[in-house]
Design brief:
Layout lengths: L4 E5 L5 H5 L2 H6 L5 H9 L7 E10 L2 E11 L3 H4 L3 H10 L3 E5 L13 E2 L5 H15 L3 E6 L10 E12 H4 L2 H7 L3 H10 L3 E6 L4 H17 L10 H8 L7 E7 L4 E9 L3 E9 L9 H15 L4 E6 L3 H6 L2 E10 L3 H12 L6 H4 L8
Parallel strand pairs: 4-6, 11-12
Antiparallel strand pairs: 1-2, 2-3, 3-4, 3-5, 6-13, 7-12, 7-13, 8-9, 9-10, 10-11
Helix pairs in contact: 10-11
Amino acid sequence: MGNYSFTLSSDPLNTKEKDLFKGHLESLELNDTIWNLFESLFQTTSRNTVPLMLRMSSGDELVAAVVMIKCFNYGITLTRLKPLINLIQLFRFPVHVWMRAGIAPELMANPGFVNDKYDSAEIYPILMEHIQRKLFLSFVHDLKDNSHLYPSGIKLDYPDEGVIDMEDVVSEENYRRLHKNIKKKIRHFRSKGGMVEIITGRLSDEDVQMVGQSIESTSKHSIFKLPYQEIYPAMCMASATIEDENVVHFICRTETLFLGYHSFLDFGTHLRCLNGAFNRELKTTHHAYENMIMKVVAYADERKIKRIYFGPVLNETKSRMMHEFLSTRIHFSSSNPILKAVFPPILKNSRMANKSVMRFSSRNGG
């Protein structure tokens, strides 16, 4: 199996290290845009939230790399109880988060990248064993199909990942026919002066600020809070400044209002959602969300893109408009035996297990 060493640091991959993963990127139908995304993530940090790169090496050779985030102030993810939130803040026990189920959502989702010289089927179990045995507390979000990689972890079902398969949809017009009342919602949106603008690359400074405000608005009204919620608006704003034409923003607005947005990475064969939010302070956005999804489908249809990955499904509108659901779980582990024993009941009653969130879980029964 070999002898491997592991290091965690706030240093992103350098050019020489990235070159080791070219083959893996090609197998995933990715390109260097993914590195631009991760580098924007590493621009955001705070006292309580730090992006990290987990490197796995054999001697002087880099074998694998994983993008993670270390969080200290994650009490709001678990509970509404102020005493418990304050206790977590006081003791500052770190949790390391790896979003592995998708690629790109929340700027950090990644499968873990493996050097072309190594067999990923051998490397991934070793990575997981290290994380579960050595990190004080870890959350790994992964597809249910990968549950075999976590034989000893604590499991919690999580909302499905939503996908639109354009090969099944066939065309934008066919997609419209599949969804009841969508034409009416498009007409209503337009009658209110609504438009969906497609912008590639860096957004204007004004729109970057509106991205941050939209994230703040959505977060304020959301039941579920991310462990790295503290810097999430800054993360999304950083992604909106990436100078890369493969970053595509779908901006919903009227002449006077920024209604919301979704951003994607365009890899030619597929789109990967980065992040998105809508202004929840408004009484209505006049079906801007449905119109945004229609615009994404039209974009994919025009460019012969095969699949659109929309990330976690956390609302009814998104659920209705997806055609495929990938079941996911969050796997918890701890190197501390006491924490490992007391954490299951905490998780069972946590905000992460809220019925409003869990109703979007396991749509395929997997």
